[in-house]
Design a protein that fits this description.
CATH architecture of the largest domain: 3-Layer(aba) Sandwich
CATH superfamily of the largest domain: Glutaredoxin
Number of domains: 2
CATH topology of the largest domain: Glutaredoxin
Largest sheet: 7 strands, mixed
Structural class: alpha+beta
CATH class of the largest domain: Alpha Beta
Order of helices and strands: HEEEEEEEHHEHEHEEH
Distance between the termini: 54 Å
Number of helices: 6
Oligomer: single chain
Length: 195
């Protein structure tokens, strides 16, 4: 029976561009794989509109952040679990500290399940120089492979090129790994270098 289950898992993984994201334990203690997908490198990014906030307050309701409005610019989408948690604070602080070096000429947005009011407080506490988008039902996160299994988003980062296509993605971005930021910086530089 175990070999049949393993064969089935191998067949499912080999069948298409599915990426394992994490695992969850069931009540019986068995570990089950959870699979995610999202637009891959070279594919068009899924357009969306979400309400936003920044350190100055909540953005106008009639002016949400719409990805398609930024075509022609490099855009970084940083999905993260939750405001005020240690990993997310470390990630957003690093983005802020490296903002002038990494994100000049780039549109950076953070996306989580948090309310706009919470986003304002979080952005003010860190002095974030970019917008935070609110996706409480994880509708957009699901389209980008960032929907979490525990009610919070997974830490996923996309670089969208000027042509609206995915230039780079990391489905398990590590908030405290300097090499992850190095890879992101290179991906942004490569995307900006293309016309």
């Amino acid at each position: 029976m175990k070999s049949l289950s393993l064969s089935l898992l191998i067949a499912v993984v080999a069948a298409g561009p599915i990426t394992a994201q994490d695992s969850a334990s069931t009540e019986s203690g068995a570990v089950t794989a959870i699979f995610v997908t999202g637009p891959e490198r070279g594919q068009m990014a899924v357009d969306f509109s979400l309400p936003w906030a920044d350190k100055n307050g909540i953005g106008p309701a009639d002016d949400p952040f719409t990805l398609g409005d930024w075509k022609g610019q490099v855009v970084v989408l940083a999905f993260y679990p939750q405001d005020f948690t240690s990993g997310c604070t470390a990630e957003m602080r690093t983005f802020t500290d490296q903002y002038d070096l990494m994100f000049t000429g780039t549109v950076l947005v953070g996306i989580s399940i948090d309310s706009l009011e919470t986003h304002v407080r979080f952005a003010q506490s860190l002095g974030l120089p970019f917008k935070l988008l609110s996706d409480p039902k994880q509708r957009i996160a699901a389209k980008y492979g960032a929907k979490g299994s525990q009610g919070q988003m997974r830490r996923v980062v996309y670089v969208i090129g000027r042509d609206g296509k995915v230039a780079w993605r990391e489905l398990q971005f590590k908030a405290t790994d300097p090499k992850g930021y190095d890879r992101l910086y290179k991906a942004i530089a490569d995307a900006r270098g293309k016309s």
